[in-house]
Amino acid sequence: MRNAGSYRVTLIALTVLATAMYAYPWLRLGMDFEIDLNEGWNGYEQMLAMTGASIYSGAGPLYFNNYPPLSFYLVGALGLALGDPVLAGRLLSVLATGAIAVCCGVVARAGGGGRRESWLAFATALGLFSAFATDYVGVNDPQILAQAFLCAGFALYVRRPDSPARLAWVAVLFGLGLLIKHNVLALPLAVTLHILWRGPSAARWVYLGVGLALAGLATFVIYLLFGDEFFHQLLASRVYDVTRGFLLVMEMLSRLQAPLAVAGLYLIVAGRGRVDALVAAYLVIGLLIGIGFSGGAGIDINVFFDVMIALAMGTGLAAAWVGRQTGLPASAPAILALAANAGIILFSPQALGRLAVDALGEMEERQRLFREDVAYLRSIPGPAICESHLLCLRAGKPMLMDPFGVLQATLTGRLPPDRFTGMLQRREIAVLQISSTREHPADEAPGMQVMPQRFVNFSDAVFDELDRSYRVGRVGLSGRFHLPRPD
To answer: What is the pTM of this model?
Structure first.
């Protein structure tokens, strides 16, 4: 092949780089400290699922769960085998990331690419997630696991879209993904629209029939197990901040500008095949959903994971198209691969530097400090509230309150404003661990434009009550530990 030399070297280099960054979540897999605030929250729910209690009401009135149920049972069951649900969730997440990258390669091959284009799509996907999504890759969170099921369904679909038997499996995989995380809608929407528009009659009816049957069965079983509480919590309202959403969108577009320019331009201007159209639709729907959801409270970069996956697929498809053009230089596919991965390459010194620092002892030190916080918390009798749920989980404290869920319920009128602050005023909480700060500091001028915080778990009223009724008893890796003031 005319482009074999430089293209092959480029692919090897990109794969080595992506694999080196992908080693980081494997390295920290078994470390005993919190990677993300969601880890302990999911761990509590996974343990609760294994007891047979309701994961939507069994934890009490101040613990909220707005996720579908499947991940808590899958991860919880593996957690029983491994002895720790958090480790189980991390393992599934890091494996699911690799599965997503493999599916991107399959899609590129189905769209007319060769082995090298499949390889490029794989390396691009692995690089994007390993560089820009380290708060999710190898973390006890269901997002990436759900995306892996959906990507597997999409990879099946693009290879044989006219096969009724295969379409049944696509519907099953999509259903499982949505039962793990309910807002990963871009791929199911793109495939469903394509089937309704272009699908053969038999395949269309099989896909829709299996999908609707699964939806009905899942709804029935969920209602039987959890009653109305599942729907109340899943559909509970949150506050929406346009400014915060704008900043998140700009952050993600800046990170993804290189593959957006390469793959996005190809899909819009030159992509003419069936798989090209599907991936283009997937990209557009993913962008619209990501932009629309970005202002919601608690929303993070995960709402753009579909965009990252579509861009990896599109990069492979674009390279296949470039390789078929006779008027381009032999190095064109290699140049395209480097251009699409420019953001990853530029970010890699930071990612690899973090890997080196952590491997040389930083992670062990963080684990030691985290365990000191756990020992301190365990030594204090009585109820505890932790912003770091994993801290309370490791200290053996029962599930008492989800600070983020309580704040959202308070702001949207589902809880009275003094529900939490009243507990603090009466000094009912023996210890409260907080790592965040006030949303609006006391010295902030009224009406002044400030950069909004990405995540807010406690209202300023909570901090006011802490100043009156509590004192700081310890400052550790996990933040500040507040103890009741003497009467």
So the answer is: 0.95
